[in-house]
Amino acid sequence: MCKKYSVLLWAAAVILASCRNKEVKTQAAGAAADSTAVPAAKVLSYKVAGTLPHDTAAYTEGFELSGDKLYEGTGTLENSFVSVADPATGQVQKKFPIKDKAIYGEGISILNSQLFQLTYQNHIAYVYNLNDLGKIIGTFKWPYEGWGMTNDGKNLYVSVGSSILYKLDPKSFAVVGQIQVTDDLGTVDNLNELEYVNGFIYVNKWQTTKILKIDPATGHVVGTIDCFGLLSQYAPGYTPKSEDSVLNGIAWDKTNQLLYVTGKNWPLIFKLKLG
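That's the Glutamine cyclotransferase sequence above. Prediction below.
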């Protein structure tokens, strides 16, 4: 009897100690989570430094300045193309349509004298020589949807509409890294068109008026630019073609330190000087 009670007391002591140990570990984990919590993103100010006309037939998916040209990749079935415009005037100089009308064009990026173009749900991406956009020189398979694309001068970054950005080798197209994007409220999804600017990735959050500034080292959203009211102020007579005629297009003018932004079927491109 006494031995039995001793065993029971010993077991109770072990269970109590275990519970206390778990409680301590839980508290420590909570403290660690609090110490690494993502701070609220800063609201970034800007001034409109100018506007340019934008092709309203362009359902913008990708937008990039390279050299003295402004490149745009567009979507929709039967009307996907890449265009080349003069960034001083916005005037479209050339259009290169995707010949296969079953292909839905998406984001673009320019690296090593090549233009890369995603497709939406076709699970293929195209590679062009920048000096001859009328001819595809390569393709690679992409297992997810294609949304936005940019590069840091070495690697490509691709968005797929989720909260993850994929880092790709531009030669093998192998995924060499992932960035989980988070803000102070948790993960951030619907990441769309991308632009790499001075060590940060700027991204349109689909169906919003916001551009997010992301630190690629942490995935944290460190700043937000709200473009609400730009169209109503500068193009009050414009009627959106559809509910999808939203902000989507970011290009960086490194020389003048200006962010060019536009939207799907928008009549204007805005030059933003960040504060």
